[in-house]
Write a structure and sequence with these properties.
Keywords: ATP-binding, Kinase, Nucleotide-binding, Phosphoprotein, Transferase, Two-component regulatory system. By secondary structure, this protein is α/β, with parallel strands linked by helices. It is built from nine helices and nine strands. The longest helix has 47 residues. It is elongated and about 75 Å long.
């Protein structure tokens, strides 16, 4: 089982004793990076993938307010939670912190239990945000690839001679296969496993391929789908089915020797797609 990634916390304070105290409280749970000035903080954020920042307000040079404002203005760092750690307790000080983007506050001297509670809470929120961003990027990738391929391929093929069409399809197959490549390097001799790899790869682009539990009469695994990665374009451009077949073939032969037999495709008027994944006997 894959171990969880340890969250990374950046602690910023110009007083070494404060850094030592925070380090003692947090080092057994988190990966820590230390900075003694606002300028060093900004540099550390550039160099490291930081999950949360504990930021002192009163520092020479750049204050914590200045640092927080700069971080929250940048698209790359605006979603990093900032806990401002300060000896200031006036209401106006907190309002100013909120205005520059602080997510929470701790008052010095820092209470260990309160510190751990606040950090854990904000890390949970950061983790959820990161998951949503990853999903958003995944969907954007699906839509971008689908849009590019469904708009480029028909125009490229419309005036190309037969031999050139084969080259274009082969190039597109290589491109898609490179994008969706996952664990096709792993060793397997089971057509069911190979079929699962094929489904997982193409489903990254928004398809709904699945492997039937039963194999066909020849012992081949059967892949079916009622939604292909090319959307409605597949029904008006059957050539997109050749692209899918090519990618499946590349995935199959990336793990073992075999072939992909096309049974049905929506591009040819069928109500679903059906492919047979057949491996050569050793």
């Amino acid at each position: 089982m894959e171990s969880e990634i340890t969250p990374k916390i950046l602690i910023v304070d110009d007083e070494p004793q404060n850094l030592d105290l925070m380090e003692a409280y947090l080092s057994h749970l988190y990966e820590l990076t230390l900075a003694e000035s606002g300028e060093e903080c900004l540099q550390k954020v550039k160099e490291n993938d930081i999950d949360i920042i504990l930021l002192d307000i009163m520092m020479p040079g750049m204050s914590g307010y200045d640092v927080a404002k700069k971080l929250k203005e940048s698209e790359n760092t605006r979603h990093i939670p900032i806990i401002m750690v300060t000896a200031l307790s006036e209401k106006e000080d907190r309002i100013k912190g909120i205005e520059v983007g602080a997510d929470d506050f701790l008052t010095k001297p820092v209470n260990r239990v309160e510190l751990l509670t606040r950090v854990k809470s904000l890390l949970r929120i950061k983790s959820l945000h990161d998951e949503l961003v990853a999903e958003k990027e995944h969907l954007k990738m699906q839509n971008r690839i689908r849009k590019v391929l469904t708009s480029i391929i028909p125009s490229l093929l419309s005036s190309a001679p037969p031999e050139q069409k084969k080259i274009i399809i082969r190039q597109m197959v290589d491109m898609v296969e490179d994008i969706v490549r996952s664990d096709c390097e792993r060793k397997t001799a089971d057509s069911q496993d190979v079929a699962e790899i094929c489904c997982g790869a193409m489903n990254q682009l928004g398809a709904s391929y699945f492997v039937e539990d039963d194999s066909d009469n020849n012992g081949c695994s059967i892949i079916k789908a009622h939604r292909c990665p090319w959307g409605e374009e597949c029904k008006i451009n059957p050539i997109m089915c050749n692209l899918t077949t090519g990618v499946f073939s590349k995935m199959v032969n990336g793990v073992t020797n075999g072939e992909v037999i096309v049974d049905k495709t929506m591009g040819n008027g069928d109500d679903h797609c059906c492919f047979h994944i057949c491996l050569e006997e050793e």
